[in-house]
Amino acid sequence: MILSVKNLCIAIDGKPAVRDLTFSVAAGEVLGVVGESGCGKSMVNMALMGLLPDGVSASAERMEACGIDLLRARSRDWRALRGGNMAMIFQNPMSALNPCLTIERQLTESVLHTHGGMSRASARAEALRLLDRVGIAHASARLKSYPHELSGGMAQRIMIAMAVASAPQLLIADEPTTALDVTVQAQILQLLEEIRQDTGMAMMMVSHDIGVIEQCAHRVQVMYSGQIVESGNVGEVIASPRHPYTRGLVAAQPGRNGQRPKSRLTTIDGSVIPITEEVEGCRFRSRCSRTDHHCVQPPTMQRTEANSHRESRCHW
Amino acid sequence: MQTSITAVHRLMPGGWGNIGFFALVTMVLLGFLAPLLLDLSPYRIGAELLVPPSWNPLSAPILGTDDLGRDMFARLVYGARCSLGIGFVVVAVSLVVGVGLGLLAGVYGGWLDAVIMRLVDLLMCLPSILLAIVIVAVLGSGLVNAVVAVTIIGIPRFVRVVRSVAIQEMQKTYVMAAFASGSSRFRVLWSEVLPNCVPPVIVQAALGFSDAILEIAALGFLGLGAKPPVAEWGAMLADARPFIESHPLLVVMPGVCILITVLSFNLVGDALRDRLDPKLARL
């Protein structure tokens, strides 16, 4: 396993926010994480990178990445891990690049960080190769550009180039396509998939769009208000969702299940409860259409079929 | 040709700043080239005292002589050299120290931030000229000690500006991205935050120049800075004080020089701020 997490809890100012997350990612695998805004997806990423802001703390029974115990990692280990085996790309590529520096400076810096003793000239050559790899035309001209001269798609390609500069074993992609328009989104997902096949890196793809996850992930876990509510193989989960929340997410996609175009979209009533709020029983209860007396008990993850890997946090 | 024109254009602050810019260029040329081209002797004591200005560039004392018969034009030119040189040293040193402390405070935060900022508050809660007098009183008077004093009181402005920029930048995604790619905190300070501090620091440097010149002149006037016979505008003002009624030009001329220089730096500084400060940027 490249990444293995058991009972990860994250607290904001002492109040529990993310509750008992258990998941793992195998080499070369793409794990999709889906959930609406504020369900704790990004916080999990930050915890995995050791970048939680002040006042937010993580605890877990086990948290291992690339053979390193993250719970015991010191700042030196973290730095080696971050620039080496683990990399991350962000939601808004335009703000993830330093506006004052050229692409060349930023990209060669990433390259030099990975290959310590490399000369400037060979770092530049490596930067050119990376730009070529992520499909940027006129790479040498682009090196001279500043971030504001790039389109969003190009900026995200450059972020990907910086991320894969160290040939990471695990790439965490935090909503990498959310800020991009749909055609560019497809190209970026395609690019990530190509790189994954070339290098065999594992990916954790976070998105609020179950359609994106369906396109690129092997397995999916659905998060709701700080918990995993359903997990399993992407195709199976989307074809026959078990948890009412997943069902709602799948149904809320436009144009699915032979819906007529421009018909009224299906929605999930209500809004997500604040992640730090304590709730008795099931956290989805207030929005669920099928509540009964079982729902007052806090639900646990259960296998949905005897010999499958699918699990759901619902008694139905 | 085209590129050199754009290069000059990029250097120009624009608007009123251009006037200040040209005044400063003239001042620098006068101060640093005139002594090489002309035979100027600011310390030679002439036979004729208090000669009125001839206002004629071809006849000897263009701006007259002072109470010891020294050539006023030569003294003013050397004074420009002195003021601009001192201004440059003061700004350069307080910029480096101030930017360094500001970055440390803004990027590392915590107790380091608290210590640095309380020290800065301490410096700022005293009127700057009073503080300079205290420092000079402790170190002893003289031009070098005056420069040290003015440098110290020039530091807080840089610390404050840089710290506030650094704190803002630390919240940005690209700083997070830099951390996520394994950069150390110092690396983030150096290659992510520092480049973003450059525009406001340039503005502060231009304004700091004018403050430094003014403070050095004030200390010179009070007899705590440059000592006679050094040709320094503030000291010249002080020397000419007894003659303010009989020969007012002796006071007016160094005063006007100080005024023009300080005003020019302020014009340039304000114009640069309009151009470089993203918060005031035109849409």
Describe the structure.
With about 325 residues, chain A is of the alpha/beta class. Helices cover about 30% and strands about 20% of the residues of chain A. In chain A, the strands form two sheets. An eight-stranded mixed sheet of chain A has the order 7-8-9-3-10-11-13-12, with helices on both faces. In chain A, strands 1, 2, 4, 5 and 6 form a five-stranded antiparallel sheet that branches. In chain A, helix 3 packs across helix 4 and helix 6 packs parallel to helix 7. The two termini of chain A are about 30 Å apart. By secondary structure, chain B is mainly alpha-helical. Chain B has one domain: MetI-like (MetI-like fold), CATH 1.10.3720.10. Chain B has helices at about 1-10, 15-35, 70-110, 110-125, 130-140, 145-170, 175-180, 185-220, 235-240, 250-275. In chain B, helix 4 (about 110-125) packs across helix 6. Chain B is elongated, with a radius of gyration of 22 Å. The model of chain B has no long low-confidence stretch (mean pLDDT about 85). Classes of the chains: A alpha/beta (about 325), B mainly alpha (about 280). Chain A: InterPro entries: AAA+_ATPase (IPR003593), ABC_Ni/Peptide_Import (IPR050388), ABC_transporter-like_ATP-bd (IPR003439), ABC_transporter-like_CS (IPR017871), Oligopep_ABC_C (IPR013563), P-loop_NTPase (IPR027417). Chain A: This is ABC transporter ATP-binding protein. Chain A: Keywords: ATP-binding, Cell inner membrane, Cell membrane, Membrane, Nucleotide-binding, Transport. Chain A: Belongs to the ABC transporter superfamily. Chain A: It is a peripheral membrane protein.
